[in-house]
Design goal:
Blueprint: H1 2-20, E1 24-27, H2 29-39, H3 41-62, E2 67-76, E3 81-87, E4 90-96, E5 100-113, H4 115-182, H5 188-223, E6 230-233, H6 237-243, H7 247-250, H8 260-281, E7 286-299, E8 312-322, H9 330-396, H10 402-437
C-alpha cells in the first residue's frame, strides 16, 4: 500500500511539473513578427473567420444545386368522415376513408432560374473577399503592434543598462564627495546635491525595471505565448534602428490600390452594388422544377408492416414559374434606396482614398522627422557627455559648484533618454509608414 502511495505521489508531482514547465523563446524582430502572424490570438480568429466565410460561400452555392428531401406522414382517423347520399330516393350513409393511412415520399427539386440566387453567388465571393481582406488588415496591425512592443522592451532594457551605469558613477561620486566632506575639504551641500540625484536615478531604475516586465508581458500576449514563458530578444536597439535609417524608403511611391483600408472600402462599395442588383433581380421571374416519388397505404388497423399490406405508388413531375407583376411600387422604392446607398458608398470610397493619401504624407513626414531627431539626439548626447565629463573634472578640482555638476548630470540623463527614444521612434515610424504603403 505504501509503495502504491509513493508511486501516485510521484505521478502527481510529474504531472504538476509538466503543467508548470515554461517554454523558452528567442526571437529577432522579424522572427517575432512571423511567429505572431501564426499564433497571435487575433490572427487565429481572423483565420477562422475565413474558414467560416468559405463554408458560407458553399452554403449559398448549394441553394442552386439539386435538393433531395424525404418525408413520411402518418394519420390516424379516429373518427371517420361520413357523407349522406340518396340512392333510389332513400338516404344512404357513406363512410369516407380508413382509420389509418401512411404516405412516404421523396422529392427531388431543382432551381432553374432565380435572379436573387445569381446575385447571391456574386455576394458570396465578395463576402469571402471581405474576410480575406480583414485578415490582411489584422496581419498588418499585428506587424505594427509587435514592432512597437518589441521596441518598447528593447528601450526598457537599454534604459536599465544606461541607468545602472549612471548609478555606478553616481555612487562613486557620492562616496568621493562624502569623503572630501569628512576630511573638511568640501561642503555638505555638495554631498546632499549628489544624494538627491542618486535617489532620483535609483527611483527611475526601479520604475524602468517594472515597465520592462510589463512591456515584455505585453509582447508575449501579442506573440500568442504564455506570459510566464521565457522570452529573449536577440536584436539590439541601436543596430535595429540603424537598419531602419533609410530615407529612400520614404520616397516609395504610394499606390492607394495596395492599401488594405482602400481594398476594404472597395469591398463595401461592391456590396452596395450587389444589393442594388439584388433589388432589381426581384422583378425577374423565377423558375423551379420538382419530381415526386411516393407510396401510400390504408388500413383499418396499424398493420403497415404486414406482408399482406397493399401499397399504392405514385409519381409526378412539376414546373413552377413565379412572375412578379405589381407590388404597388414597393420594389421600386427598395431599388431606389439601394441605389442611393450605392452612391453613398462610392462617395465614401473617394473620401477614403483622399484620407489615405493624406495619411501617407503624414506618415512619411513623421518618418523623415524621426530620422532627423535621431541625428539631433545623437549629437546632443555626445555634447552632453563632454559637458558632464568637464563638469565632473571641475567639481573634483573644486572649480565648479555641486549645482553646476548636478545640472550637467541631469542634462546628460535627459540626452540619454532622448537618444534611446529617438531610436525607438525611427523603428515605429518606419513600421507605420510600411503599414500605409503595403
Amino acid at each position: 500500500m505504501r509503495k502504491i502511495f509513493i508511486l501516485l505521489a510521484f505521478a502527481f508531482l510529474a504531472k504538476a511539473n509538466a503543467q508548470d514547465a515554461k517554454q523558452n523563446y528567442s526571437f529577432s524582430l522579424q522572427q517575432a513578427i512571423e511567429h505572431s502572424l501564426q499564433y497571435n490570438y487575433s490572427a487565429i480568429n481572423s483565420g477562422k473567420d475565413i474558414e467560416i466565410a468559405k463554408k458560407k460561400k458553399w452554403e449559398t452555392t448549394t441553394m442552386g444545386l439539386p435538393q433531395l428531401n424525404g418525408s413520411v406522414n402518418y394519420q390516424n382517423n379516429f373518427k371517420l368522415q361520413q357523407n349522406l347520399l340518396t340512392v333510389d330516393g332513400n338516404p344512404v350513409t357513406l363512410t369516407m376513408g380508413d382509420y389509418n393511412n401512411i404516405d412516404a415520399k421523396l422529392t427531388l427539386s431543382q432551381l432553374i432560374f432565380d435572379g436573387s440566387y445569381l446575385v447571391g453567388l456574386e455576394s458570396a465571393k465578395v463576402y469571402l473577399q471581405m474576410f480575406e481582406n480583414s485578415k490582411k488588415k489584422s496581419d498588418s496591425e499585428i506587424r505594427e503592434m509587435v514592432t512597437n512592443s518589441y521596441g518598447n522592451v528593447l528601450l526598457a532594457e537599454e534604459s536599465i543598462r544606461v541607468l545602472e551605469r549612471n548609478l555606478t558613477v553616481l555612487e562613486k561620486n557620492y562616496a568621493d564627495a562624502n569623503q572630501i566632506f569628512k576630511n573638511g575639504l568640501g561642503e555638505e551641500e555638495s554631498v546632499e546635491q549628489i544624494g538627491i540625484t542618486l535617489a532620483s536615478v535609483k527611483s527611475s531604475l526601479s520604475n524602468v525595471k517594472r515597465l520592462r516586465e510589463i512591456s515584455l508581458k505585453m509582447l508575449k500576449i501579442n506573440l500568442g505565448i504564455e506570459i510566464n514563458d521565457e522570452l529573449k530578444l536577440t536584436d539590439d536597439l541601436e543596430a535595429l534602428s540603424k537598419n531602419n535609417l533609410d530615407l529612400a524608403f520614404a520616397g516609395t511611391e504610394f499606390n492607394v490600390n495596395n492599401n488594405i483600408d482602400y481594398q476594404m472600402a472597395t469591398n463595401l462599395t461592391e456590396q452596395k452594388r450587389l444589393l442594388l442588383k439584388l433589388e432589381k433581380s426581384k422583378a425577374l421571374p423565377s423558375l423551379a422544377a420538382q419530381v415526386n416519388f411516393g407510396s401510400n397505404a390504408f388500413n383499418s388497423k396499424f398493420n403497415f408492416l404486414s406482408q399482406d399490406q397493399r401499397w399504392f405508388n405514385y409519381s409526378n413531375i412539376g414546373v413552377g414559374l413565379n412572375v412578379p407583376i405589381f407590388s404597388s411600387l414597393g420594389r421600386s422604392a427598395k431599388t431606389q434606396q439601394a441605389k442611393i446607398a450605392y452612391e453613398q458608398s462610392k462617395t465614401q470610397l473617394t473620401e477614403t482614398e483622399q484620407m489615405l493619401k493624406l495619411q501617407f504624407e503624414k506618415s512619411k513626414s513623421d518618418f523623415e522627422f524621426s530620422i532627423e531627431e535621431y541625428a539631433t539626439a545623437k549629437s546632443n548626447l555626445n555634447l552632453a557627455e563632454r559637458i558632464e565629463k568637464k563638469q565632473q573634472i571641475k567639481f573634483g578640482e573644486g572649480l565648479s559648484t555641486s549645482f553646476e555638476f548636478a545640472e550637467a548630470q541631469r542634462q546628460l540623463y535627459t540626452a540619454q533618454q532622448a537618444y534611446l527614444q529617438s531610436m525607438v521612434d525611427v523603428i515605429n515610424k518606419r513600421a507605420s509608414l510600411e503599414k500605409i504603403i503595403k
